[in-house]
């Protein structure tokens, strides 16, 4: 399951506690009672303007307008108490309070309308991002999978990091990668690579041929993009493609300049270093012969941690990188989802809650005895 930070409810659509109305109502009552006890030359009525202003800070336009009307009525009552409504001073106070209450109510209405539009735009953006980076399935055959994505861009759920999974004839195939750059161009590049990866699934390409296909697809995409951003000839994607076999406790991978995964077995953590990582994808047109596969044991109960460099390059206030291997070794254990949540929370504590670069985490476990459901 992929964890995402749920967007907060905007001010115009949030639910507010009606008990908060006791604050402006109590304020109006207190001012009216105080006016009964003060001489006529002391005017507390102007303070009634605070009631609709306070209400607008937590309630909608209807409640704000109602409190404003009540404040105006209270000002009229005070005017009758101190010489009548026909005096110029009281007319000015009532008129001013009426104008300010109307303006505050109109502002609250306009703010709510803006927030509703913003909510609609955000919902469309979230839907679009979900299409580009679909959640990984909780289970693929004998595998349990969990993932989390931390985007550096504000109000974004995805960035230039990516992951995807498909089923081939004898394995579960996954890819994780990191596009050079940030912003919308990086999101577009990530979407292009995911599309090429999914589109190749039916062909059952060997991993080396898959890597060449992805690299060439990205090279072609940049050469024909016509965009005016970073030089497309300096663009690239670090990536790791992985096959986890259904019928034997093995996995193979091709690394294209990507950080190596971690294997957790029996409480110990091992970095799966490759002999000679290939160049990142898209630097030049390539062929299957430019890549090599690495094979390693992946047995029942093992956990495999894939990640992008946003995780290991996350810094704290002192400039120290996040110590991934040490922190994974300190993990008390559990299923893939608990490990992704542990790493997400621990990394955010390390950085003080700030994410300076996109970070993607995928955890895979082979659990053949766990029933579907």
Largest sheet: 7 strands, mixed
Average pLDDT number: 84
Estimated helix fraction: 25-40%
Alpha-beta classification: alpha+beta
How far apart lie the N and C ends?
13 Å
Strand content: 15-25%
H/E element sequence: EHHHHEEEEHHEEEEEEHHHE
Number of strands: 12
- What is the alpha-carbon Rg in Å? 30 Å
Principal-axis shape equals elongated
Low-confidence stretches: 4-13
How many helices does DSSP assign? 9
Structure in words:
It is elongated and about 95 Å long. The chain is 40% helix and 18% strand. It contains nine helices and twelve strands. The relative contact order is 0.11. It starts with a strand and ends in a 7-residue tail after the last strand. It has 373 residues and is an alpha+beta fold. The chain has helices at 22-37, 50-56, 61-81, 88-132, 183-199, 207-223, 309-312, 324-329, 336-351; strands at 2-3, 139-140, 143-150, 161-167, 171-179, 237-245, 250-256, 262-265, 268-271, 294-297, 303-307, 359-366. Strands 1, 2, 3, 8, 9, 11 and 12 form a seven-stranded mixed sheet that branches. A five-stranded antiparallel sheet has the order 4-5-6-7-10, with helices on one face. Residues 4-13 have low confidence and may be disordered. A hairpin with a 4-residue loop joins strand 6 and strand 7.
């Amino acid at each position: 399951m992929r964890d995402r930070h749920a967007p907060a409810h905007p001010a115009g659509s949030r639910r507010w506690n009606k008990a908060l109305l006791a604050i402006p109502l109590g304020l109006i009552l207190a001012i009216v009672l105080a006016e009964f006890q003060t001489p006529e030359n002391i005017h507390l009525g102007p303070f009634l303007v605070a009631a609709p202003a306070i209400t607008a800070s937590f309630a909608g336009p209807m409640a704000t307008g109602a409190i404003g009307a009540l404040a105006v009525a209270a000002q009229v009552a005070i005017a009758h108490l101190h010489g009548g409504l026909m005096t110029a001073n009281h007319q000015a106070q009532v008129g001013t309070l009426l104008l300010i209450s109307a303006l505050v109510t109109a502002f609250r209405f306009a703010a709510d309308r803006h927030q509703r539009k913003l909510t609609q735009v955000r919902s469309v953006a979230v839907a679009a991002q979900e299409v580009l980076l679909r959640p990984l399935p909780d289970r693929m055959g004998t595998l349990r999978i969990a993932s989390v994505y931390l985007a550096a861009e504000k109000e974004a759920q995805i960035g230039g990091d990516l992951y995807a999974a498909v089923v081939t004839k004898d394995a579960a195939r996954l890819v994780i990668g990191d596009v050079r750059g940030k912003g919308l161009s990086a999101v577009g590049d990530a979407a292009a690579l995911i599309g090429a990866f999914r589109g190749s699934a039916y062909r059952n390409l060997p991993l080396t041929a898959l890597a060449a296909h992805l690299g060439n697809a990205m090279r072609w995409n940049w050469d024909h993009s016509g965009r005016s951003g970073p030089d497309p000839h300096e663009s690239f994607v670090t990536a790791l493609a992985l096959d986890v076999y259904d019928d034997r406790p093995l996995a193979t991978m091709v690394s294209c300049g990507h950080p190596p995964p971690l294997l957790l077995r029996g409480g110990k953590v091992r970095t799966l270093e490759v002999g000679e990582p290939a160049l990142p994808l898209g630097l030049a047109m390539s062929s299957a012969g430019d890549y090599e596969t690495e094979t390693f044991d992946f047995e029942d109960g093992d956990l495999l941690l894939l990640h992008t460099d946003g995780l290991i390059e996350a810094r704290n206030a002192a400039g120290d990188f996040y110590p991934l291997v040490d922190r994974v070794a300190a993990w008390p254990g559990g299923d893939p989802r608990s490990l992704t949540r542990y790493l997400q929370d621990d990394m955010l504590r390390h950085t003080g809650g700030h994410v300076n670069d996109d970070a993607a985490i995928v955890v895979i476990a082979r659990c053949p005895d766990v029933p579907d459901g």
